Fold each of these.
Amino acid sequence: MTDKPSKTSDTPSPDSPDDAGANERPTINPPFDLEAFARAASSPSDQPGATSDAPTNRPPAPHWDPEFGPEARTARISLTSEVEQERARALSGRKPVRTVTSSVLSIANARASSSPHVAPVDPAAGGPGEAASSIEAAVRDAIGESSPPEITERTIDDPVAEMRERFSLGDYTGALEMSELILAEDPDHVDATECGENCRTVLENMYAARLGPLERVPTVLVPRAQMRWLSMDHRAGFVLSLIDGSSSVDMILDVSGMPKLDALRILHELVQQKIVSFR
Amino acid sequence: MDKVIGIDLGTTNSCVAIVENGIPTVIPNRGGYKTTPSMVAVTEAGKRLVGHIAKRQAITNAENTVYAAKRLIGRKWNSPQVKNSVATSSYRIVQGPHNDVRIVLREKEYSVPEVSAMVLQEMKLIAEDYLGAEVGKAVITVPAYFNDNQRQATKDAGEIAGLDVIRIINEPTAAALSYGFGKNVEKTIAVYDFGGGTFDISILEIGSSGVFKVIATAGDTFLGGEDVDARVIDWLVQGFREEHGMDLRQDRMALQRLKDAAEKAKCELSTVRETEVNLPFIISSGRNEALHLQRTIDRQTLEGLSNDLVERTIDICRQTLADARLEKEDIEEVLLVGGMTRMPKIQLAVAEFFEREPCKGVHPDESVALGAGIQGSALVGDKHDMVLLDVTPHALGIMTQGGYFEELIPQNTTVPTHRTKIFTTSRDNQTAVKIVVMQGESERAEEDELLGEFILTGLRRAQKGTVEIEVNFEINADGIVSVHAKDLETSKEQSIEVTASSGLTRDEIRDMMEGAKDYMVERRTTEEFEAAKQEAERFVGEIERLLPQVEQIVAASDFGRDAIDKARSIVTKARSAIAKRDIATVKGEIEGLSRTHRMFKGVVAKTH
């Protein structure tokens, strides 16, 4: 903390509170791994250096931060549930990112495109955040509600190795994203195709297990008139529109017209947020 | 007595009916709806969807959802209607091996009768679920203008679906049958049929002893309720664009919701003056938030949007009456058929045109299927007073010099029948004549349907008009047309047998039947398994809920441990069988699970 570069204090975030505690928060600047950061932020005693060593200015070129590099990150991923990772990814997708050219693969970009944003809102509480998970709350604490992180990219030297590593550590969503990025550049990549399919199967089974028997019929708990006060994206809105009180989850998956995994994930989010329930 | 179902195989919706204890009844589907969308889709996972479920994903899975297959059935690849469909359909239509039409779904080609068979199979299933017994026979309706090939293709579709199609009848005739059921009417009626995808107007003469003659029929196969929906969608899209500057058409999910909402609003406006279209989160704003569509539409707006479409139907009615040389006063009753006729504006337009209030006695969605059901019941029952006579749907004849059509057997002639006519050569020293067999009503042969052709050779060289050739048309009881041409001087003759063709060979139909049967077996097995699984899972859940209590209660007894172990073993077996999708074992375990559940409940109840 004492070695904090003077640059940081010269350029404080305009929305940051200037109390002592707030000064210890990192001004989120990349290279940035939101999940690792979120974990670090939610357990500061375990990771004392995580916040203080975070750079305060955007570096000239993306590089692996030793603290948040693959090793540190993946070691923690195995302790985090897919759902928590999804939330973190959803948050990370709120900022637009630059388009990637050449062969540099962008993690931030991948997450932004593949994460349906279904942020919870409790109308009674008057805003988002009431039903948020601890990880999400920790992230918000760390970065401040009004100054969302500036997401940038980090390069990956060996995307195939990264994909395999993520898969072996049980980060199936991450591995799937990597496989999609690889396939975007090389549609015939055998390993990426296989890994992507495996990830999809595992994730589909995982969400299906959480939803319970797919013959069950979901119902919408939120009155129609109040629906527009919820916070969700149009994809979630579409899935919600398919819930008519007589169609089973299986039928909804069939008619959604979106990949099964996406539909399952959205349905799961809707159930988690108590927008949807089962009869 | 065999149960015969009547099926209205519509362009957009189908309906099935039966006569039960003398009362014609429409059979609702599993969702409780009395009509089922005539839509078939194949999902990404290869699953077949038919009916409402196919309709709900029709836009998001547009390339693999077939609608309005009826516009293509029995038609040749090069027909104008097929070309029109190729240009306007979202699914792929390709040329088949017999110059027929094929539809591509998920890279697999299906013939049109095969697709229609999937809808018919669904209607058969609906009837079987309702009756609790297998259904074998059916009467299917077709538009009055369908030619022999289209009728044969519909019959083939029935056969592929596992149905014995005992009669094909005209839709307006079926509606008239439903109207005349239990009454003794002799009238000239107009059937104004404005459905989801097509418009038809037919003038019928209902005579005594079951003669229903179609005097005239016309329509537009690309005009229906969907066009009205499209106008409402346009209106909503335009309003949204003005408000938010975004085009909802660019997003398939938004478009699917719009389509459903537009249809719903249209239907509601038949009974209420205004309705709200409320579609929250319809499209992404591009800033990680979604926009909502909320608009009120009133009846006047809807009528304004669809006015020209209604006018088009009235123009067709006017033309049809003129063609049939009938006056409005000759029409003694007007029947309204098809969902669109619920629209007050249409009822008013029809009443104004025909200068009489339309009949309210027939159900717009159900009357055609009910008529088919009535006919089916009459065909297998003792009461034959309502049995329709089999008639030729179109005139039959040959092409003569100058490209004209010479009629030999007029439209609506009861079969079997035969007619003969003498023709002469049209050129000097003509030694051969080509007999071109046609079907239709147009004087111009090119506008009629070609059924077949053959050449009679070896004619005597002579001046034109001197060699006489006798042409004989014969239609037997099975509808097979034989045409003979005979040189009266030499008695040389040639003939051709014309059988209506759907464009499929017998082998193809047989293969498709096998495929349909396999699908049914698979579907029934899946349903059976799902039912058994649900029951088993319900017991397993209950047993596991009671287990800790029972364990506690019986812990002290000698037999307690044994009973608990047995219960656990049954649960494990059931779970394993469910995981392996072993239907026989799952079903076998249900009895044991039920017994265990009863026992557990008893134990718990006794201690409380």
Note: Chain B is about 40% helix and 25% strand.
Amino acid sequence: MQLTKNTSLWKKYVINDVIVISIAILLAGGFFYGWQGMHSYFNGSSLPNLSVDYRQLPYYTLRTTMRLCIGLIYSMLFTLVFGVLAARFAAMRRVILPFVNFMESVPLVGFLTFTTAFFLGLYPHSVMGLEGLAIFAVFTGQAWNMMLTLYQTLRVVPHELTDVTVAFRCNPWQRFWRLGFLYSFPGLLWNTMVSQSAAWFALIASEMLTVGNHSINLPGIGSWIGSAIDSGNVHAVLWGLLALVINIVLFDQLLFRPLVRYASRFKYEDTCASEKPGSWFYSCLVNSATGHILGKLCASFAYFWLFTLPKVWYRLKLDRLFKALSVLNWLWSGLWYLSVVVSCLYFGYRLWYYLPLQYLPQLPAWMGLTAARVIAAMLLSIVIFTPLGVWIGLRPGLVRFFQPIIQIMAAIPSNVFYPVIAVILLTWHQDLNAWTIPMIMLGTQWYVLFNVIAGASVIPAQMTDVSRIFRVGGIMWWTKYILPAIFPYLVTGIISAAGGAWNAAIAAEVLNWGSTTLKTEGLGAFISTTTDAGLNPEAALGCLAMCFMVALCIIFIWQPLYRYAETRFRFD
Amino acid sequence: MMKTSRSVLEIKNVARSFRRERQTLQVLENINLNVHENEIVALLGKSGSGKSTLLRIIAGLEAPTSGSVVCNDLPVTGPCPDVSMVFQSFALFPWLTVAGNIAFGLQALGLPVDEVKRRTVDMIDLIGLSGYADAWPKELSGGMRQRTGFARALAVEPELLLLDEPFSALDIYTGHKLRQEFISLWEQRRIKTKAMVLVTHNVEEAVMLCDRVLLLTGAPGTITDAFGIDIPARERNAENIKPFVDVITETLNLKIAAALA
């Protein structure tokens, strides 16, 4: 009996090992192949045209995935460095936080043009320069959100846990990796997953580049879809979409699911969740010899990371050096502030002479139009998707069913749907003006839906009990119970949606399908036409105008709203 | 204590089980209980004994797997207007002021605005919250928050009041003071509630407050012992309740030890 049980277990192990090792070999081979492609020769003006052969699509998908992964690694590095700096040093925080808050909602798609020269100079004669640009686009899509999450959770690490690490004499390095990092890991992971859609959006938009007067297609899904749209090829668009969805699902299954499953142990909560998130790949790994060997390797690496590295640091007496330096803290923060002010003034001066100021009188009207569209899109998303989110969020069964679907839907960048809308508009001879609103909504609605579902599903059970005991119903149920309860989540959702909405406005105000172009008045249209025409000063002016409005929104709407939600509506 | 024959609450053969991962977990079994008018009944047991589940079944928040619950001659199928509840962790809405929280139940009844306002103000005075009407729950101490919890539950004038460990989140002194004030309101008939069920794991609290103390022990949980406290409530003190406390504590310890063996 024991023997048969063992052999069956053994068989399971072998099967798991075969699965794990073959996936690993596939990934390694793909990585190597893609890496070669990324470093191939680039003559500075054009790349070979994209093939329209469907058999090339897996390779394009591979290249796109490489960019996504590398971008993710850089975002993580940025998150760790700047999240910790902001959490630990007030002087840094005062500059980093407004900057990141601003960058989070700034239309970065518009900015990408200006970084082209930098990246081409970094890798002359190699495709890597263009790749660098696309990777930077991925970075700008998700890094800010991730960093803010790390910073916010680092600030709310429970005091008693920090006290424990102090009592057991952990050095700051160990304190961060064993407490701060682990404590914020589940939230960080969740936000990384949510911001994948922003990364995809930026990636799709940046694979078709304009360098000088040439447009260059990097091999990838984004440029595949882009060129299919330019030639009006419906089949190619659909194939591209299919590849995109498969890619998103693979990414989710092989990277995020296992990580979420693993990270569930770091969740800080009293009650044991009855159901742990499952992942087939994770259980494969856990029940395989390869997984065990990997686990051992990771454990010894963790030991080295936590205990051996700090020893080197202390042996080099670097801690004393930094202690001595920290005596002059006032000097460092003064220098820091001074350098920030000086560089702002310098770049402001340079910009003023760079910008074509003759457009200034027209700008306010365009800004108003685009702002009106963005606001209308956000209000509509709230009105439609709040009730839907509440309906789903209060039913755990539905949440489990819808969450993966919504995740995939949210990760599909909305700009791939725009051509479909363009076709519809052309067929029924509609005006683009009002139709930009639903197009912007395609990007914003998911954030609202996501957050409302999250908010509704974490309402404390006792609050639900109170509302049921007093038999609250109708309007009172909405105004006194459910809306206040989800309000902080709704605000978070709207704020993250706002960033995407401005970006979407740039893409939505000019539509291309084959040789026809639909255009409407607005700031977004101004930015995208000038970018396409390679008019950098004009594009810069448009982007700055949009940044200005974003900043206004942050200062006068989002921050007060967020603070209000935090102080009044949080359960504690 | 004078007891009339009328029952406010009748529980017959109630059982409750949960299904979790393909196995059934029996929590409550064969529960029979009558609560009469002018009576306070305590349900005593260790954590996990199912006493809170029983309270939730009485409140209509959960349905029993089998058996029946009748409150005021009406079968309980969902939360009913004659029952109200005080929670261990207060469960106040952070977005409503003290007055707003107290008015919550009254507004849900659909009463006119003036009536809601009048009864809220009355309740604030009665429960000792004067001056705090416009305070937010966050600004209050634990004792004040639980006063608000009591005021909210009592404002709707329930026939049956359910108390889910209402004093255990407070420190001993605050809890003691609130308990005494509350019991004197009850003794002087200044609240319209006809009967109460208290869930607790504090034996002394149960004996001080209640006319009957029931032990809920075993797995699945059932009512194994009942003790009548025949000292008039206002004459109870630490001295004369000690025999009751000792007997109940000993029985409880024996039952828990037997369950572990």
Note: The beta strands of chain B are 7-20, 23-36, 39-44, 66-71, 74-75, 83-86, 160-164, 195-200, 212-217, 222-228.
